[in-house]
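ok so I'm stuck.
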Amino acid sequence: MQPKRRRAVCLFTMTAAVERALIRRILQGERQAAEELIRAHQPSLYAYLLRLTQRPERAEDVAQEAFVRALTHIERYDPRFRFSTWLFTIAKRLYVNQAQRLCPSFDSDVVSSAGSGWLSSGAGDMGESEQNSDAREALKLAMESVSEDQRDAVVLFYQLEWTVEQIAEYMDCAPGTVKSHLHRARQRMRAALEKNPRVARRFVEALAS
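replied:
not stuck anymore, here's the structure
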């Protein structure tokens, strides 16, 4: 059974058929088609990268570079797969390469997700109240408790509303593996919160406010 989600804010509105049609036009030299493809995928790609980089300017830079590389090498795109999967793979590779050079420390203050009562979206938009500070601390502790693959699955599934199948394609694994990542991530995040009852309680209070 696929994990339940509380909200439906899917940014995946472009179908595979529309993607392929746009790419055919791009290969024919239509600049407008490239602009349409960028507009369709820019919000979700930026949101994903923001949660990886924790910095808007870095997320924007990596997103722009990913689009440049994808469009420059558009002839390499395999139409059997979603363009979005290929684009996100390019972006993730760019992020990893950049992270290895800069060696940043992990900070999940801007991580926001939704689901299962203990995971909420919109944490990045919270104010500076004591409750909200505790909520961000709780998210940071929870997200630090999971592996990189689990964190990717959580962000893509709960924040960007990707389906399990889309995540599996992106992560190059079976859908069952994605479900396992989500299940284990929820267990680890819940355990991390339970280790600090005060933070967990204030986290729930902040979500209810």
